[in-house]
Amino acid sequence: MFAAPFIALALAAVAKAAPAASLCPDGVHSTINPQCCFWANARDRFINEIFLNVCQENVHSLVRIAFHDAIGFSLNSDKGGGADGSIIQFGDTELAFHANEGIDFIVDFLEPFANDVGMTFAIQFGAAVGLSLCPGAPKIPAFVGRPNATRAAPDKTVPEPFDDPTTIFARMADAGFTPTELVHLLASHTIADQAGVDPEPSVLGAPFDSTPFSFDSQVFLETLLVGTMFPGSGPNPGEEQSPLPGEFRLLSDKVFARHNLTSCTWQENALSQSTMASNFQTTFTKLSLLGHSQSSLLDCSEVIAQAPPATAPKAFFPAGKTHADIEQGCATQLFPTTLSTQAGRATPIPPVQVQDIAFGRK
């Protein structure tokens, strides 16, 4: 007879104990931790000045550069300082590496911004902010306070799409990641497009799936479809035939979708957007902390918004494709026959356009 009142009192105590946000000195933002006021303002600047308030090319490029910067790290030897902003701080060196081709424009955009907030902040914090604009993306924690890089990462720390899987697995293991975690990181390809693999101008920005502005599981499904065409001047090193006109397929993605160490995780991501997003959140957070101790950083995750819900919480076959087009990869579980096919006729997928911004070296 006393249970309900006691529960009510307990809930009231919890609610009373929850910290309240306070108005920041700028009179605009409110944060629980006053030290995060600066980052609330930086978040707004990223959204308005870099991303233009949409999940498009600049978000993809921030997520890409976050990986390229952080993976300059090794558990066994000196391969850089991890997530330290060296790709901006020492851009003259690192942007000359073949694996970083096509990434220079976002560095040009970020450089004046990074001078205000710090090199590594501009990358890892910016990626967390950018992903919050993408429907279906998980909330990435925002840990700030990393010191800037003191040295460039060496060449060959970023795996290339034409590398054989053994080489890629070994490089990722050297940085502390399993083949399964590699697949989780590749969820970023759901908002990705090509730059630097095919030099044909018409396919600059050719997306890796048919829904490049949504953090859904389409890239994992569509990479399992039989490839039938090259969208540009292919074949090029690191490129494989894609299943849809206008869509680009990396050789490494095709291999991982069918490799015995990664194919079942790949299929799992194709069949569950929520699982894909959760696994990406965990692994991308791990990536963002390479070279640093979380306990030494300030947690300002409170300023990062939760992304809108996924526009397609369940994968679907693009128009004109069916279960018959699947190339089975996972040896222990058949791909189910329950997914629907998008209505209508197949149409070419347009390239993702470069976004213009008001500042930066262009």
TrEMBL record:
Catalytic site positions: 68 (proton acceptor)
Amino-acid positions noted as binding Ca(2+) 1 in the UniProt annotation, renumbered to this chain: 69, 82, 84, 86
InterPro entries reported for this sequence: Ccp1-like, Haem_peroxidase, Haem_peroxidase_sf, Ligninase, Ligninase_C, Peroxidases_AS, Peroxidases_heam-ligand_BS
Source organism superkingdom: Eukaryota
Leader sequence segment: 1-17
Annotated Plant heme peroxidase family profile domain residues: 57-270
Any GO BP: hydrogen peroxide catabolic process
Disulfide cross-links: 24-37, 36-300, 55-134, 264-330
Segments forming domain Fungal ligninase C-terminal: 276-352
Similarity-based family: Belongs to the peroxidase family. Ligninase subfamily.
Name of the protein in question: Peroxidase
Organism: Exidia glandulosa HHB12029
